[in-house]
Amino acid sequence: MKINKLSIAVVFLSGSMFYAQETKQDTIIKEKKIDGVVIQGSSNKKTETAVLGEQKKAIIQKQAISAEEISRKGISNVEQGLTKVTGITTVEGRGLFVRGLEERYNYLLINGLGSPSNNPFQKIIALKQFPTDVVGKLNIYKTFNSNLYGDFAGATFDIETLTIDKPFTKIEFSVGVNTLSTFRNNFKIAEGADGMNGYLGLNSRDRRLPDEIRNSRPDNYKFTPDQSLNSFKDSWNVDNVKSMPNTSIGFTTAQKVKMGETGNLGILFSLNQGSKFEYKDGDNNQFKGQGKNSFIENMNYLNRKQYNYETESSVLLGLGYKNKGTNVNLNAIYLQNVNNIIEDNYGYKDGQVLNKTTFFRTNQLDISRFLDLQLTASQKINERHQVKAGASYVINNYQQPDRKIIEGNRIDPTTGNTLSNDNIAMRYGGNNIIRQYLDVDSRFYGSAFAEYQLSLGEKGDRKDFPIQIAVGYNGFSDFRKTSYRFIFGRTSTSSAPFVINIDTPQDIFNASLRNGDLYYQEGSDVSQYYSSFYQIINGGYANVNLKPSDSWDILLGARYENDMTLIRYSEQSAENKINLDKNKNFFLPSISVKKALNNKNNLRFSFSKTVTRPILIETMPITYINPDNVNIVGNPAIQNSENYNFDLKWEYFPTNKEMFAVNLFAKRIDNAIERSLVASGNATGSTITFFNAKKADLFGIELEGIFSLGRISEALRSFTLGANATIMHSDVERSQDQLNMERPDWFALTGETLRKRGLQGASPYTINADLKYELKNRNNLAHTFSLVYNVSGSKIYATGGAGTDNYYEKPFNQIDFVYQGQLTKNWNVKFAVQNLLDSKYKILIGDKNYLPTNFEQGNNTLTNYYRGTTFNLTVGYTF
């Protein structure tokens, strides 16, 4: 390593300030991210008991994770926290699944305001980027109410940022080692990425489009030898380093200032910086069928080694003023994620079985910047009237600048022998040298809400008025543009094969550029390199909350939502842009009923209609190119899903710290969106694309319990068991587009039909559990030990086609151990062991193919790898 990776707040701030001073000139535009910070109220809502009490009283089905539980379970980011909730699991690189539904069915709020994704491949922010140091509570809404956005089927997550109960300042440092990734020699990283610029994400400046084409339309520009040498600032070379322990440092301070007789000003500032090394090694295969009398065979048979060096940064600032019935909050969060990826593949692709010595490398930088500025306010006019409003402005950018791809083989062109691991043979031309530039830039994102609440009737001895009415508005505008450009290494002569060291090819390339054997030329399609996405959502709603008695609570809601979506793009080689207008109006009713059978039992029912909007990549009109020829093709014609949701739930609260619940649920999803993986139409490679199903039906049961084991024996009174499980069945009716894609050609002659299947992404079961042991020493300082387990059942990763079965993501069993200890009044320590079982993550092709199989070495794996076991120690000091 060139530097010590200890995070220093002053260094990071100076880096952020330098970034903010850059001018916005190129297609790789900066992205800044800030998530809201609210300082409000003085009551402590952070304890698990308080959160459980709030869940018991709420009219809609709402679950939450308190700051106390976040701390106890050693949760360092929001994504980890949400996986502890009934029916929620995280899936490798694809976000959170709720009740077995893909992430596209979820929506994110931050302090009640809409938040766009900072990644076109995900529906919501990668919540692992959001540190929990400033989280007061994570709210999870699994039933819909009209004041939520209509984009709802799995859940809506609302991150409530930290409330200040008392002033504090906290410094925390963490160090972790992974059994697979840490202290690995020859860990590969892009040249210069392990320096300070790489640590702060500033190395992306060297990977921008060259000046010669940055602000112009593609025109097959041919770079001169001098330009080819000097206009590309980033090297093809790769450094080999020793991967160091993962580290992070955090600083949080919350202060109160007296304002007048009754007012208070709260100030919250938090800074977090961390780095992580991750190594993966496993299969990267693809399969295809050639027709009725053929086999399902390998298209690709590859071994993949991936090296990830990732840094995450966040800066949060909140100002909150409170005076009697007045609350005003100004919040800001900047999030940045930088992932330097080196990926090597060995084997064969595109069915070239005789060429099993193919090698190709991808040198990739993923960087997202997200800045969210929020202003929210509420005013209690009197006991019967209250108003609240809020607005946010987001600057948001995702980039893959200068994604370099190089390809060759492992055979010495002179001797025919296999080359050493560091060397490959290659020749210029044939798309063996490619530079890709992807930029998804937010031109504008704004979100706002306003609500008026009116209470009618007389409370009498009750806490609440019998009739509560709310009318309001919320909506957002999201304008983005996409630029996707290619530069190829070309040659003007017939290039003979030559041998290079794959880690240090730059000198050979430079010599070839000087003597004219190699030059760079842009090869972007002038019609397709650029597209635009415009979406404006305006929603008006009204709620009537009726409480005819202390035991009945009825919430009636109606929401009208207008969705104005416009996609501007071009078909390949077309002269004019296509304007795809998707203007839709939705009326979304909802009803929730709670009957308190007694002070310990609740019975709930809810019904709602909602919509689901696709992830950006699912509708983005580009073909995202991968070197293994597994390309992602967006479908701009994809339609929103329309969902009908039913829930019936019984809750039992034996004590204020215990709970047991049974929830029956069902959903009808019209135009359900599904991922497909099929052979490409050009007979080489595979395509991941997206279609609407005609409809999908789901029904299931959720079980949840939190119990003190002291009920079994007094000797176990310090133990608490929390467990939840979701069991679900789904059934899909395919659309005509899916039938055309999935049905083999010979079915038209034989009359065969496709087998029934479940919804893509829907898991038949999900289990989460944790066992907690808590003790207090003679100084009344708490120590807790927790075992946490989660798993979800086998689910369809992607539907197959042309004779193949579906592709299934197999169960991944994870057990974590967490110790949380308060050593003194000021010092605390956490020790966590994650992924104790070190299970293998894997996606397999199913065993019900419509053709016999002939897999290479009998291997039916699409992809697999181990993640290793991580040991993490965190030490904090609070004063």
From TrEMBL:
Pfam families documented for this protein: Plug (PF07715)
Chief location of this protein within or outside the cell: membrane
Keywords: Cell outer membrane, Membrane, Receptor
UniProt protein name: TonB-dependent receptor
Signal peptide, first to last residue: none
Domain TonB-dependent receptor plug: 59-153
TM stretches of this protein: none
Domain of life per record: Bacteria
InterPro entries, per the entry: Beta-barrel_TonB_sf, Plug_dom, Plug_dom_sf
Subcellular location: Cell outer membrane
GO CC, one annotated term: cell outer membrane
